[in-house]
């Protein structure tokens, strides 16, 4: 008792600044261990697929340890991008320029597997990046190299006007128009007719992939055999409200809107004509994503309104239409998609779709460990490896195709 009393007395004798600092540090550490370090929650109907995920994606049974000094959602989202841009090496893609039926062009960047496991069939994974992403983006490179190392072929779909390819027609892309994606998928299957096709969609790419998976095109032809959706903004109306909140979220929104405006400006030779349905000068002045979509996207793809476009592109009310085995990864603190926006109740009623929810992770963040400055064994890439390696093995995907 005397020892405890003396220790308290010595602590109280410290300068006020030290007392405040130590108290804050202890409180921060307690918060981290009590509320930030948790195993992912899995939302899926009890049954074979949920059991398969538990048994074959063992990382979900472990606690996810977000990097202690940067687990705040927006900080982690930005820092993950910065760190990967420095530590992830260039991916040695082989580029293919694919001409679309209307004369447009897109770039497909391929990586062949390093070594295919003996018990693994030929498999190709199509990667769909986020809103303004391309094959050179840090998270795309990192994913591509991780997939290649896992023994799969990967091809990155660079949307129209993206990835250093000039726009050949006055048309870009949207979060739910699957025309270009359909042509790309058919091309992959004609090039590798015996390959098993998997898909990874990140953020907006997840919306686009989800739209395809829920379409009649997929239901009839069964192109994809398995998929992963990562950091998907399931409800776009809620997402635009989330990212327009001051101040940090608004900053991210403004940055992305500027990137979209730059894409339009870089293709001004195709998009600035006065004969188009949109006002070019108004488009490039857009300050938010909603403004950009209002000024440009809905006019290009002939939606009645921005909300009409967002409703059609959202997936939160369409998860029951996805029939291939699909694993989704979201962070509960994603500034683009809050936990309340996730279709968790719907997932709990579906047998072939599972949503993994981490407490922390931000948007395409998921950094872990005290020192995240290496590209080895990142949480997100371990999930990708474990899922596809198990779902493609011995044709396991056929057991869960709804």
TrEMBL record:
Annotated catalytic residues: 203 (charge relay system), 334 (charge relay system), 363 (charge relay system)
Protein name per Swiss-Prot or TrEMBL: AB hydrolase-1 domain-containing protein
Keyword Transmembrane set for record: yes
Organism listed in the record: Acyrthosiphon pisum
All copies of domain AB hydrolase-1, residue ranges: 124-369
Keywords: Membrane, Transmembrane, Transmembrane helix
GO molecular function: acetylesterase activity; monoacylglycerol lipase activity
Superkingdom of source: Eukaryota
Transmembrane helix recorded as keyword: yes
Lineage, top ranks: Eukaryota, Metazoa, Ecdysozoa, Arthropoda, Hexapoda
Similarity remark: Belongs to the AB hydrolase superfamily. AB hydrolase 4 family.
GO process terms (BP): medium-chain fatty acid biosynthetic process; medium-chain fatty acid catabolic process
Coiled coil start-end: none
Bilayer-crossing regions: 14-33
